[in-house]
């Protein structure tokens, strides 16, 4: 396997560190818009000559296709932000490469009833091209990070091995991370966090299909394992709600993010002030009026989460809560994966949230190499057998857990 | 009197509309960085040939001095934001013009103990040059809007006519303004509001002098007159605290702004995220990386308060609460000035907060023309006899009130 990794930010860099310990691939080309980031990621790998740095604009489909061809890559792994999903997805299709991403093509709210009906859904643009991929016998494995990704594998595992019938699948994500010296320092890319949290959350119900609610709906306190404890969670737009029902039968699917009350209030304020907008505003500058996206300015004012690992303390938990029936009796299970920042920093020099996202696509690539996972079309992680994935994740030194509740 | 008005924003434009109804001056030159704003202000006055539009950069002291000389102006009225106080103040001194402003030179927090001690205080840079003004027999009348301005006149009036001894003078500002169709739309320049509210508030006590506290300190609910009702007020950095004790004897002087809880939380969030900062950050844009001030971006995302008059409802109140002793008995009085937005829009086409700021410097200029007010040096409004001011304000159609409490 020869991999083109596009994006050498926090997650991309962690992917190189995780992959460097594995032997399943022949080459991994690290490409970024900023060549210094790609160079730094490769330089940190102590001369492992399977890795090469390149510069590429992820929005330039032709340039990406060219780079895939030039390095004879058979897999494109997308570690950029979701704005670049479509050009990368299409560049992979053009060149015949397998495509893997960790977030899907962006949604657009319903023009008239944004908080009741879906407009364009997450991944719609990708699924619209599923026929082409299937016809070509090519694979796009979409949403293959931790959430979506591992959370979808858990959903399929619950359906295969733990339940006869599933009432509800609820992805629940929470953490107790703090950052020394920073009163406010999100542990994940703020651009994506705003996108996820302020878009109308999507919910699936078997008899209604997909529908939306107002942001931050259905608050609940979920008790996270391994000492994290109770965190206030709210509905958030997330890929699992779009992916899980395509392959797993459940009466209801939700995603709730343990943002905590203070963070929710902060996001509401950004929205109130229009600072979440991506459309440019005109602002004076020393070199005359310039046009900038307010959301980019918010991101520029905050520390880069990938650089905060040394100052971070605590654990992050991703998981899938399932309620249903097994052998005639009601059952409720939370399948989860916890990463302690202290461990991920010591082992990989990567902060917990970024490392937890990065490990899953590497496991998936290894399963595709060995043939344990195979398929054609645009497929989510729940389209594949879950057991080999969960076993290999444990073999990577990062076990998962199961709590009956 | 020939006046150079620098700044044709909301307050500057309202000044032209108020002045146009008075006969005390011979010429009023309206100058702005944006010539379209100056032109629009003059064009709205139906051919009153005392008004002329000019373009000027308020930060360019030499250009301002040149403009004063060219139009033979004997008064410079500064209606820009406080960043431009010093170049305008100095341009007036150079040319021998009287200088009037509505906000004073900016403060700088104490480097080590910002929430305990003053660093550079509001107006310090101007008072440092007071000797030059006095020696030249020239007048700089500083802080002559509504707050500071009318509030200082009230303080002097209380000392002259209502009290034998004053325990505390507390400026209290509150409103019940709402803006149709906007969940968040400050009624005054957000740049200045952030500056005022996030700088360490200053308090004066006779036995301690001036000192600072943490932002939003000493919350209290103050009951505002004429139907506005109770509003949560907190300490805010404001000129009155620096001006009043120089001319009026009181044991304590404070300024509390009726921001309301929601607005206070919004400002705290902006501060937490670093979006209140004026130092530029680098942000991507369609034309490559650019440097912008986050606070300018916040301002650009919000509607221009001067344009909101038609959508605004409610009243704004500025006033001075005084507690002390008269004829051996304790007394407590609130002297206030309320403007109803519906009235100011109907009468002047100016929204209430902007109009209330604008009327006071026009009254002051008229008193300087008639000789009812005269002086030399750098003087606050409380350095002059209050009664002529209050009577002329009433004659302008905008009476003030007194509430015994």
UniProtKB/TrEMBL annotation, chains A, B:
InterPro entries per record: NAD(P)-bd_dom_sf (IPR036291), Sacchrp_dh-like_C (IPR032095), Sacchrp_dh_NADP-bd (IPR005097)
GO molecular function, one term: saccharopine dehydrogenase (NAD+, L-lysine-forming) activity
Annotated ranges, domain Saccharopine dehydrogenase NADP binding: 3-141
Domain Saccharopine dehydrogenase-like C-terminal: 145-397
Enzyme Commission numbers on file: 1.5.1.7
Any one Pfam family match given in the protein's UniProt record, by short name: Sacchrp_dh_NADP
Alphabetical keyword list: Oxidoreductase
PANTHER family: CARBOXYNORSPERMIDINE SYNTHASE (PTHR43796:SF2)
Record protein name field: Saccharopine dehydrogenase (NAD+, L-lysine-forming)
């Amino acid at each position: 396997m020869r991999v083109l990794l596009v994006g050498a930010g926090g997650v991309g860099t962690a992917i190189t560190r995780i992959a460097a310990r594995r032997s399943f691939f022949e080459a991994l080309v690290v490409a970024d818009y900023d060549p210094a980031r790609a160079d730094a990621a490769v330089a940190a790998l102590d001369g492992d000559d399977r890795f090469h740095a390149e510069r590429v604009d992820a929005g330039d489909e032709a340039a990406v296709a060219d780079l895939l061809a030039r390095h004879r890559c058979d897999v494109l792994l997308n570690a950029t932000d979701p704005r670049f999903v479509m050009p990368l997805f299409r560049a992979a299709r053009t060149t015949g490469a397998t495509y893997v991403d960790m977030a899907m093509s962006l949604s657009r709210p319903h023009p008239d009833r944004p908080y009741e009906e879906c407009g364009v859904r997450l991944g719609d643009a990708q699924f619209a091209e599923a026929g082409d991929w299937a016809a070509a016998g090519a694979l796009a494995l979409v949403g293959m990070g931790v959430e979506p990704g591992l959370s979808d594998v858990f959903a399929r595992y619950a359906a295969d091995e733990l339940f006869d019938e599933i009432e509800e699948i609820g992805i629940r994500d929470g953490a107790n991370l703090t950052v020394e010296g920073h009163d406010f320092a999100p542990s994940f890319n703020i651009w994506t966090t705003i996108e996820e949290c302020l878009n109308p959350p999507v919910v699936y119900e078997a008899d209604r299909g997909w529908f939306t609610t107002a942001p931050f709906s259905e608050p609940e306190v979920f008790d996270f394992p391994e000492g994290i404890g109770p965190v206030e969670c709210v509905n958030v737009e997330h890929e699992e709600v779009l992916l899980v029902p395509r392959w797993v039968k459940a009466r209801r699917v939700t995603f709730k993010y343990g943002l905590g009350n203070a963070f929710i209030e902060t996001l509401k304020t950004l929205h109130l002030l229009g600072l979440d907008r991506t459309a440019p505003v005109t602002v004076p500058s020393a070199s005359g009026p310039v046009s900038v996206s307010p959301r980019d300015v918010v991101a520029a004012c905050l520390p880069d989460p990938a650089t905060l690992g040394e100052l971070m303390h605590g654990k992050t938990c991703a998981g899938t809560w399932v309620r249903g029936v097994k052998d005639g009796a009601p059952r409720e299970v939370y399948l989860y994966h916890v990463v302690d920042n202290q461990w991920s920093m010591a082992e990989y020099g990567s902060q917990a949230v970024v490392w937890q996202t990065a490990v899953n696509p590497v496991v998936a690539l290894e399963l595709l190499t060995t043939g344990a996972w195979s398929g054609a079309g645009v497929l989510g992680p729940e389209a594949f057998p879950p057991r080999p994935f969960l076993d290999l994740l444990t073999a990577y030194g990062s076990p998962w857990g199961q709590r009956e509740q």
